[in-house]
Amino acid sequence: MTREHETSGRKRALDAMASMPADLLGERYGAIAKTAPQAIPVRGPEIGAVMVRGRIGGGGAPFNLGETSVTRATVKLGSGEVGHSIILGRDTEKARMVAHLDALGQITAWQAVIETDVVAPALALDAEARRQRAEETEATRVDFFTLVRGEDR
Amino acid sequence: MYVAVKGGEAAIEKAHRLLADRRRGDRSVPALSLEQIAGQLSLAVDRVMAEGSLYDPELAAMAVRQSRGDMIEAIFLIRAYRTTLPRFGATRPVETAAMRIERRVSATYKDIPGGQLLGSTFDYTHRLIDPAMAGDHPVEPGARRAVAEDAAYPRVTDILNGEGLIEPDIASDAEPGDLTRDPTGFPAGRDLRLQALARGDEGFLLSLGYSTQRGYGRTHPFVGEVRIGLVDLEIDLPELGFAVNIGAIRVTECQMVSQFKGGGQDGPRFTRGYGLVFGQSERKAMSMSLVDRALRADEFDENRAAPAQDEEFVLSHCDNVEATGFVEHLKLPHYVDFQAELDLLRMLRREHAAEKTAETDRQEAAE
């Protein structure tokens, strides 16, 4: 696997897991963690903030909009793989699970099961949630029509 | 002479106990859950996040509950909490052009590309109290309609920019100022002004925006576009060497198109005001964009005469936590201050009385 390929796969998994509801992630993680190598905590999980930035006018220079709470974690496996996570909110357990899965994802033997049991369902769930919201919004679209005016008759 | 006294402690303790009791209210009524507050009073939660300057719906719901619905008190709680958090960094600037749209309207173009999407709005309601709100009647889910594969919602400013009719954004990756880290000096850059306005009091900004419409710093505005929806937050992780998406937040953006300015190399074109706030709040985003435009008076050689154009006035007074702190501190003991005033006043009155007596004596002697 090329370095670039590896990065995009890892990013895809981290993005997907961040979007996954904690209870579903916990369920899937629980099944994997039973037989997976254990995670040794390296940093955190710790709660903090990141500054959210916008752009002046939407496309200009950055400005600081306000902060959001985040949780990050770093873990290590006995075999040396290091996993990282950073997620929106203050769920330390979720951050720990994501970091552990990120570490496991670097071991070829675990990639398929993480993809099938965690990443793919997370992406499907997110896509469905997006689709529902988009369709609900779409239903409120204004379909303008013009009335026939008197002088046109 | 005034001697420092103690004795408030026991009363304060009992007052706080009473506060907890009153906050809980009738025990036969179930307590509010955070899910109820975040789910059913979501716009209150959005305001607390925006002005508390921390996006965290669960925490904002706790603050609303703890403050008994006193919004400024809740905002204060969030501000206090955020100071305890270590700062891990900053996100990449959010891409509002790629927003997952939940509402999007333009008052300038009926046929704006992407269309007018009303979303969940109070607009066009009759503003009559609905008797159904007294009960718990079943509520229909939102209707659904398939979205076109190639659906796109270009920002109205990008549309006008094609013809050069409107001032463009000046792309830059300059590091923005941060008023939570450095004291604000004047004149302040537009980055700092927008940060202050984004966390500023909705009521204050609404009134200032309104004042510009009534002639105090007139800018002749149109809502080019208001959009509400979810934007992804991306943060660079140095440990990984790439950016990750940490989740999405809801924001409201307003592009206010304002009166055109002529001359220069570019010819006459519309000017703009910009609003961006956490959560769903178009009143706040619109007010912010009006005030942002008014505060750009110097850029367009406008006479700075109205309150909304005075950045020191606006930025020094738009923060409701600072404002409430200074106003509300007046109710705390000022016994010593006041005693000094009393002493001074008594002395002045004695002098005044003595002068009056002397005057009367002089007059009597003259007669």
From TrEMBL, chain A:
Domain of life: Bacteria
Keyword entries, A-Z: Lyase
InterPro entries in the cross-refs: Phosphonate_metab_PhnG
One of the GO BP terms on file: organic phosphonate metabolic process
Pfam families: PhnG
Entry's Gene Ontology molecular function annotations: lyase activity
Residue runs in coiled coils: none
Protein known as: Phosphonate C-P lyase system protein PhnG
Source species of the chain: Ferranicluibacter rubi
TrEMBL record, chain B:
UniProt keyword terms in alphabetical order: Lyase
Top-rank taxon, per record: Bacteria
Lyase recorded as keyword: yes
Single Gene Ontology MF annotation: lyase activity
Source organism per UniProt: Ferranicluibacter rubi
Lineage of the organism: Bacteria, Pseudomonadati, Pseudomonadota, Alphaproteobacteria, Hyphomicrobiales
UniProt GO BP: organic phosphonate metabolic process
Protein name: Carbon-phosphorus lyase complex subunit PhnI
Keyword Lyase belongs to the record: yes
InterPro entries per the UniProt record, alphabetical: PhnI
A Pfam family: PhnI
